[in-house]
Amino acid sequence: MAIIRYPNWPWADVSTALEDFERARRQMDRLVSAFTGQGAAPAVSGVFPALVVKENGDKIIVEAELPGINPQDLDINVHGNTLTLSGERKPDKVDGASYHRRERKWGSFRKAITLPDEVNPDAVQAECKNGVLTIILPKAEQTKPKKIAIKSE
Amino acid sequence: MTEKDLQIPEKKEVQSNAESTRNAPVFIPAVDILETEHDLTLLADMPGVPLDRVDIDLEGDQLTIRGSVLQENGAGRVLLKEYAVGDYYRQFTLSSDIDREKIQATIKDGVLRLVLPKAEAAKPRRIEVKSS
Predict the structure, then answer these.
(1) Would the ipTM clear 0.85, i.e. be above it?
(2) N or C: which end of chain B has fewer CB within 10 A?
(3) CATH number for the domain including A126?
(4) Tens digit of pLDDT for each residue in B62-81?
């Protein structure tokens, strides 16, 4: 008896079709978020504080929303290409008050993040404005792109 | 007080029929509301909002807080985005009478503090329990 294969029959490809569909869905998600540039930002690391990391030429910019945190209670450390942020948010105390709502959280935090490049730790600047922390980290000299001249004879 | 770890606050978007004119999401700020004998204090987390961009409106017993975030869109390629930046909006219905002349609003480190003094008539009076 001859065994006939039907490679082009649709059910032979169900698993690949599902994979294709999944890939298309992911591409669609990426496309949508690239267009809107916002929307529900997923908490990637799940560790407080949530960060936005940007790259601008030879600088890396790290931003975090830290409302109610006194800049003096913040500790920023750079070691190699690891940035560590730690601090504490203290509860606001009002004597003799009763609470109707208490949604704002307090406590301490410690977060480490690996930067995409080595940075120059001596030139790091940090600023806290309206509860938003901005850290500007210039890249280390050796990681900056260098223009290579081509010699012509 | 025991030490505890802070969690990333979930930013809830306002569900509203009215569309905003700015192309930014609008979030519900987390608030604390405290009441003392003399006033009602409202604390709202609104990072990125300077005082001149906060709009507080008290109409009847409806208190509306609006905060427009000041986005300094520094050019750059975004490598990681764990949160979205947007405006803030929240409405409350106040139960006690407020002395509107004396409302104070301050902002510090991204936290709005709104002190709403109670009107004389609304201050609590001690109720004597008579025993017969």
Answers:
(1) no
(2) C
(3) 2.60.40.790
(4) 899 999 988 766 678 888 88
